[in-house]
Amino acid sequence: MEQPTSTLEEAAMKRLLERDVTLEEIAELVFDLQAPYIENITMDRCLENVKQVLRKREVQNAVLTGIELDILAEEGKLSSPLQEIITNDEGLFGIDEVLALAIVNVYGSIGLTNFGYLDKLKPKVINRLDSGKDSSEVNTFLDDIVGAIAAAAASRIAHSEPKLDSNY
Amino acid sequence: MEQPTSTLEEAAMKRLLERDVTLEEIAELVFDLQAPYIENITMDRCLENVKQVLRKREVQNAVLTGIELDILAEEGKLSSPLQEIITNDEGLFGIDEVLALAIVNVYGSIGLTNFGYLDKLKPKVINRLDSGKDSSEVNTFLDDIVGAIAAAAASRIAHSEPKLDSNY
Amino acid sequence: MEQPTSTLEEAAMKRLLERDVTLEEIAELVFDLQAPYIENITMDRCLENVKQVLRKREVQNAVLTGIELDILAEEGKLSSPLQEIITNDEGLFGIDEVLALAIVNVYGSIGLTNFGYLDKLKPKVINRLDSGKDSSEVNTFLDDIVGAIAAAAASRIAHSEPKLDSNY
Amino acid sequence: MEQPTSTLEEAAMKRLLERDVTLEEIAELVFDLQAPYIENITMDRCLENVKQVLRKREVQNAVLTGIELDILAEEGKLSSPLQEIITNDEGLFGIDEVLALAIVNVYGSIGLTNFGYLDKLKPKVINRLDSGKDSSEVNTFLDDIVGAIAAAAASRIAHSEPKLDSNY
After folding, report:
1. Number of CB pairs, chain A paired with chain D, less than 8 A apart
2. What pLDDT, in 10s, does the model give residues A101-130?
3. Which residues in chain D are closer than 8 Å to B164, comparing Cβ atoms?
4. What is the mean pLDDT of each run of 10 residues along chain A (168 residues)?
């Protein structure tokens, strides 16, 4: 049974699409994370779990806040020095990771590992977002948000697999 | 010996003052928190600890980001529905607490208790900031930030008092 | 429809009862937290939400770990200096708050405030647990765990009340 | 000028050594993390930063608590089901990551990425600790603790390098 989407959920999904991130791309990250551990994992199941993560209000609010800051920086509408910090994606900023952690925590601390891994190696869509920095795009928050949603979805799947072996 | 203030530190302090929050007011919160536990605690010592908290980069970045969002909401410059959520200080938003937690954590998890206490009872300056909601002021992030700085300063003092009794 | 309880869930509930904490007592804390905001809140609804919090694996694991450490300290079975730190409930320990935060975060950061408030004022069952310190009982983790479960249950209720006014 | 070591600090260092983890091995992890970003980084500097991380009380307490639980599990002294969960290093436990996060947070959220990366790839000493699982050793907490100390030390170094480029 489909649950109705809320206004906030629709707004968060719309924002992701406007920034050229599809839920399928996030699901791909989840697939790659989980394939070594879960036999028969499918893209459909990954996508469904990404959607479930996006039903959580804390996730929706983090998505809306982070993308808003990226866009405002892109348009040069923030005050200095925040404008420069976010535009340059300064490594010591930390607030992007703070929002990401709020997303990851929704399915418990086991998601920390996958989030850090994605944020370090920047595979697929995360790499594309991160490379946007060379142009005028600002994705300082968005690349962390995408990694965090994928890590949370992977945790959600793991929690539904009680027989996961101890090396997971 | 005075350490030189950094640009980021100056920017964060300036932002607080522009929003009519003085470091002395934050120090007052710290004093009230610590007076029952530490004999001879002085306002000077509390103020010094507030200043030390503000030397931390994660704190500076949280202050700059939170106040920026408050001001942008006040000026009606955010997109919907984030504009309405922040303007109305919606109780389920959560991102204000997330930024506050980043500040509190700088001196460890013992600050959580004092932060929650201040955020619930809203004494003194926090009450004033929170009442601003009735006018056109938006202090959705600022009231949590002020409570978090005070809680972190209280933790910093506690860490310097090894003989604190077990009921602290 | 009742969902079946898991072994882990049963183990966590059993541990709480063995330490003389009933779910009803935790529900009372939730009731007192929510009564000012939600008309017609009932003890039954609070109890149901406490039970739902206890269905979360991260909560179960935090309960089992924290209570185990309390009991081992009570029996003098920990190594020094951890034995003394936990027995004396040293204010700077912090690991009790860390476990509590893991519980609270299960329903998002809005629970931080209620957790801190309960941990500071120590109403009802929390006070009883905390006073146990005067005897040979060790409840260093348990008082934080109980406050965290109550705060998480209050958040869960708040998330189900979309019309909560902005002062919540 | 050397600061004197505290009793707690000595206890934490002693515990690490008893579990066959040297500070030099942790410093090696830090070196590998930072070498791509910081020219002229030396093992000495990494080691010094590992030592500074271990001066933090929250870190010391997390080390003492985590290793205690590993040892108690090894000796079969925990109650069921916690005994089995920790002995088998169950992937959904999460409390090991919770303690690790407390360590990482001491130098801000920028350490999350490095922690996750180390915890996923398990290089060098972390791999050795993790392989101990095949024998009768239990290092469920210790491998996360070691990764967290390394990640925190890397953050500490990054915070001291204001000119770090934006890709850090």
Report:
1. 100
2. 999 999 999 999 999 999 999 999 999 999
3. none
4. 75 97 98 95 98 96 98 97 96 96 92 96 96 85 98 96 50
CA nearest to A14, candidates A96, A90, A71: A71
Q: pLDDT tens digits, residue range A5-23?
A: 789 999 999 999 999 999 9
pLDDT tier at B135, thresholds 50, 70, 90: confident
A83 membership: H or E segment, kind and range: helix A82-87
**What is the token pair recorded at C66?**
């924290």
Q: Say if CB D97 and CB A112 are below 8 A apart.
A: yes
Task: Give chain A positions within 8 Å (CB) of D34.
Answer: none
Contacting residues for D20 by C-beta, under 8 A, at least 6 apart: none
B58 vs D106: CB contact, 8 Å cut-off?
no
Kindly state the helix (H) or strand (E) to which residue D30 belongs, with its residue range: helix D23-34
What b/e string do you get for A44-54 counting C-beta neighbours within 10 Å, with b at 16 or more?
Answer: ebbbebbbbbb
Residue position matching structure tokens 């990771």? A97
The confidence score (pLDDT) of residue D165 equals 40
pLDDT score for A156: 96
* D91 contacts in chain C (CB < 8 Å): none
Prior bond of A81 cis (ω within 30°): yes
Long-range (24+ apart) CB contacts under 8 A made by B17-20 are B19/B67, B19/B70, B19/B139, B19/B142
Integer CA distances (angstroms), B140 to A47, B119, B129, B132, in order: 34, 12, 9, 10
Q: How does pLDDT run across B24-63, given as a tens digit for each residue?
A: 999 999 999 999 999 999 999 999 999 999 999 999 999 9
Whether D92 has a pLDDT exceeding 50, the answer reads yes
| Structure token digits, residue A124 | 């697929």
Residue C133, C-beta contacts closer than 8 angstroms, at least 6 positions apart: B166, C89, C139
Residues 51-70 of D with CB under 8 A from A: none
Residue D140, token pair as written in the block: 């469920």
Residue C10: count other Cβ atoms within 10 Å of its Cβ. Answer: 13
Is the C-alpha dihedral spanning A122, A127, A133, A134 positive or negative?
A: positive
Which among D146, D149, D64, D144 is positioned nearest to D111, based on CA atoms?
D149
Interface of A with D in 140-159 (CB under 8 A): 158-159
Task: Kindly report whether the peptide bond that precedes residue D81 is cis, defined as omega within 30 degrees of 0.
Answer: yes
Q: Is C108 on the interface with A (CB under 8 A)?
A: yes
Which residues, 6 or more positions from D121, have their beta carbon under 8 angstroms from its beta carbon? A117
State residue D5's pLDDT score: 74
Residues of chain A in contact with residue D113, where contact means CB-CB under 8 angstroms, are 97, 115-116, 119-120
Closest-CA residue of C relative to B97 is C109
Q: Is A28 on the interface with D (CB under 8 A)?
A: no
Give SS3 for D2: coil
Please state at what angle helix D111-121 crosses helix D140-159, rounded to 10 degrees. Answer: 140
Nearest to A14 by CA among B69, B78, B81: B81
How many angstroms separate the CA atoms of B25 and D35, rounded?
44
